[in-house]
Design goal:
346 residues, alpha/beta, FAD/NAD(P)-binding domain, 2 domains, six-stranded mixed β-sheet, five-stranded parallel β-sheet, 8 helices, 22 strands
Length: 346
């Protein structure tokens, strides 16, 4: 574990859309932010679950994909130069003598600030891994549990495993660009939405995809690169399918992780907050986005954006009561415009 402690104004646990917008709102007030996320990039659910699927309820955006939204948010927060600590969890929370909080990550990074914001969404997403023979040998190069860039799969042979919404949706989305898709499901009934099920069955009838009802029994390849997947059908037949990428979409396990042990007031997997400030029952700790709960809560990205704006001002007033808070609008306030790098007062 490192000995150096990094001091900042605000530690944000979660780099999804709500965590990112918190950086923007805090930045307008002159606060510096560090973010911690267990994923290897910013974006949260938008990147992990639906990077190329359209979102229709973001104000002023008739349609935007998860990836586009995150790219735009990253551009929006860039003037404030936030620091990201990816592929690790916020593990230990400790109160310091000066009243600040120290957060130590699972990689040993120690951050200290008067404000900690839990913006962990639904929690940490961990893919459910199937018990396939030799799965670990191919995970680094040929096994994908999420789709980050569709173009990667152009003209490739794909084996998608699962019968829920995620598996069916990606069969539909990837069918136009893949060389071949084989969908493997352990039974003949799918768990996904009726419309998605019908579209997949139609693709199979038209010969655009192949559906195998059964189980993967072996993986074939060398040096971590798959060449084929062996399947045993429900009828007992053995089928060998060429495969460049194996894509098990069996769902995700969601957990609060170490946050559950921080002593916050929890309602099941949600942190209870005051809806006027989004403060928890622990001074200096705030919670926003899907992870928090209060009467009338709506689990929407736009709601999280509102919560971030209110939280930032409340947290500023708590942490720096002797400082003057910059008010006004981004369209007219010269201090805010200077912080955004768009000021022109010549």
């Amino acid at each position: 574990m490192q000995d150096e402690v990094i001091t900042t104004d605000m530690i944000i646990v979660g780099a999804g859309p709500v965590g990112l917008f918190s950086v923007f709102e805090a930045g307008l007030l002159g606060l510096k932010c560090h973010l911690i996320d267990n994923l290897d990039r910013a974006g949260g659910q938008c990147i992990e679950l639906y990077p190329e699927k359209p979102i229709y309820d973001i104000p002023s955006r008739a349609q935007v994909t998860g990836k586009e939204l995150i790219n735009d948010l990253m551009k929006q927060v860039s003037p404030f130069e936030p620091d990201f600590h990816f592929s690790q969890q916020a593990e230990i929370l400790e109160k310091q003598k000066n009243g600040h909080w120290r957060v130590t990550t699972t990689r040993g990074i120690m951050l200290e600030a008067p404000i900690v914001v839990v913006a962990a969404g639904a929690g940490s997403f961990i893919p459910k891994k199937p018990p396939f023979n030799k799965l670990g040998e191919f995970e680094e190069k040929s096994v994908n549990y999420a789709v980050y860039r569709m173009e990667k799969y152009r003209d490739k042979n794909l084996v998608i495993v699962g019968g829920g919404d995620s598996a069916l949706d990606w069969v539909i989305n990837l069918a136009p660009i893949a060389q071949k898709i084989t969908l493997v499901h352990r039974r003949e009934e799918f768990r996904g939405a009726y419309d998605s099920t019908q579209r997949v069955l139609k693709l199979a009838e038209e010969g655009k995809i192949d559906v195998q009802y059964g189980n993967v029994i072996d993986l074939v390849g060398a040096d971590g690169v798959l060449s084929a997947v062996e399947i045993e059908t429900l009828k007992g037949d053995k089928v060998t399918v060429e495969c460049d990428y194996l894509m098990p979409f069996l769902g995700l396990k969601v957990t609060l992780g170490p946050i559950a042990n921080w002593g916050l007031n929890l309602d099941k997997k949600h942190v209870q907050v005051c809806h006027e400030t989004f403060a928890t029952d622990t001074a200096g700790i705030y919670a926003i986005g899907d992870v928090c709960t209060y009467p009338g809560k709506l689990k929407l990205i736009l709601t999280g954006f509102y919560e971030a704006a209110v939280m930032a001002k409340a947290a500023f007033a708590y942490a720096y009561p002797d400082r003057k808070m910059v008010g006004g609008y981004t369209t007219t306030n010269s201090v805010i415009q200077d912080r955004l790098g768009v000021g022109d007062h010549s």
